[in-house]
TrEMBL record:
Protein name stated in the entry: Histidinol-phosphate aminotransferase
Catalytic activity: L-histidinol phosphate + 2-oxoglutarate = 3-(imidazol-4-yl)-2-oxopropyl phosphate + L-glutamate
Keywords: Amino-acid biosynthesis, Aminotransferase, Histidine biosynthesis, Pyridoxal phosphate, Transferase
Uppermost EC category: transferase
Annotated Aminotransferase class I/classII large domain residues: 40-354
EC number: 2.6.1.9
InterPro entries on file: Aminotransferase_I/II_large, HisP_aminotrans, HistidinolP_aminotransfase, PyrdxlP-dep_Trfase, PyrdxlP-dep_Trfase_major, PyrdxlP-dep_Trfase_small
Subunit: Homodimer.
Gene source species: Sulfobacillus thermotolerans
Domain of life where this protein originates: Bacteria
Family listed: Belongs to the class-II pyridoxal-phosphate-dependent aminotransferase family. Histidinol-phosphate aminotransferase subfamily.
Post-translational modification N6-(pyridoxal phosphate)lysine, affected residues: 233
């Protein structure tokens, strides 16, 4: 006789019970359903409202038209060649994945186990904690500096003989702070060689600071460093889910062994290739994004609100009251934003940088709510 339906016999391992489902920024579809508003601007997930390169769109359309019958390349040689040429890496130092998220989890699963410790900053991207708990490793948190960057001295204070991985996000999400080159070099020099440092640089293209760390140099010297990047932000291919990472060969090779063989689809590979080759378009988007970010900062300053100085494509502002209330009212005005309560910042609102005409409309709506 079988067991009674509903009896608790099969349970996940204890670390999985500590996980919380990822809560993304509100989608246009969900807000439309809740509010009935048909014209919405999404400023909650740091997607680029400039959109992808027309060449990337054309390449994606051609990939669909040419047929979806065959599996994609597991190791796309032409894409590795293009990435290597632009960023100065050998193909053996590169790996692609189904967004940066897959790569971050893959790194943790490959290099950490149940008796290990993984250090990550708080507040920062939730994927670091998620991947750590997936492996059963112990998560150890580090603080940020007042400028919203990872505090590398505090990270070093958390290192023990059980530390296997350190996650660093620069520019950091949701604060936008960066790690500077001098601090980075001192940090690497003080770190034991048996610890893997993961640099999440999803927003690095927006970091227009001459002192921002240069991960390529550290990788070229053979340091145990892996740089994780994405085509979801400045390249605006979030809907196709493609990211990439670079590290010394000895770090990349085990990742390729552990990775699912066909996790990046043919359409994404084609669009990524074309997007990377259109650097003129990307530089134009970068220039306009930085100008719009400066405009947004001035608008918050004019209104008397404080915020972290951001080197990403978002600004997180302290509204001094429940940000969820503001977000709900902004949705009614047609703008989707991201309350930072999930990061332990209940009064902060993260707003994606958008073209200035959109931001003008956003601040007009914000002011109307404030008067309301």
């Amino acid at each position: 006789m079988g067991r009674k339906r509903g009896s608790a016999v099969i349970a996940p391992k204890p670390s999985i019970k500590q996980l919380n489902p990822y809560v993304p920024g509100r989608s246009i579809e969900s807000v439309m359903k809740d509010t009935g508003i048909s014209t919405l601007v999404k400023l909650s997930s740091n997607e680029s409202l400039w959109g992808p390169s027309p060449r990337a769109i054309e390449a994606a359309q051609q990939a669909v038209a040419s047929g979806l019958t065959f599996y994609p390349e597991s190791d796309p040689a032409s894409l590795y060649e293009t990435l290597g040429r632009i960023h100065h890496f050998a193909p053996t130092q590169l790996i692609v994945g189904n967004g940066a998220d897959e790569l971050l989890e893959l790194i943790t699963v490959t290099y950490a186990g149940a008796n290990d410790e993984v250090i990550y900053p708080v507040p920062s991207f939730s994927a670091y904690r998620h991947g750590t708990l997936m492996t059963g490793a112990r998560g150890v948190t580090a603080q940020l500096t007042p400028e919203g960057a990872v505090d590398l001295e505090d990270v070093l204070n958390q290192v023990t003989d059980r530390t296997r991985i350190i996650f660093l996000c620069t520019p950091n999400n949701p604060t936008g702070g960066i790690i500077k080159h001098t601090a980075w070099e001192s940090f690497l020099a003080a770190l034991p060689d048996n610890i893997l440092v993961v640099l999440d640089q999803a927003y690095v293209e927006f970091a227009n600071h001459t002192e921002h760390l240069q991960a390529q140099e550290s990788i070229a010297k053979g340091h145990p460093v892996i740089m994780v990047r994405t085509l979801s932000k400045i390249y605006a291919l979030a809907g196709l889910r493609i990211g990439w990472a670079a590290a010394p060969d000895y770090i990349i090779s085990p990742l390729k062994t552990a990775r699912q063989p066909f996790s990046v689809n043919r359409v994404a590979l084609s669009a990524a290739q074309a997007a990377l080759e259109d650097q003129t378009y990307i530089q134009n988007v970068l220039s306009e994004t930085i100008t719009a970010r400066q405009y947004m900062a001035r608008q918050w300053q004019t209104r008397g609100y404080s915020f972290w100085p951001s080197y990403a494509n978002f600004v997180t502002v302290d509204l001094k009251s429940d940000a969820r209330v503001w977000a709900a009212k902004l949705e009614q005005a047609g703008f989707i934003t991201r309350p930072a309560s999930a990061w332990g910042l209940p009064h902060h609102l993260r707003v994606t940088v958008a073209p200035i005409p959109i931001l003008e409309q956003f601040f007009a709506a914000f002011d109307a709510i404030g008067r309301g």
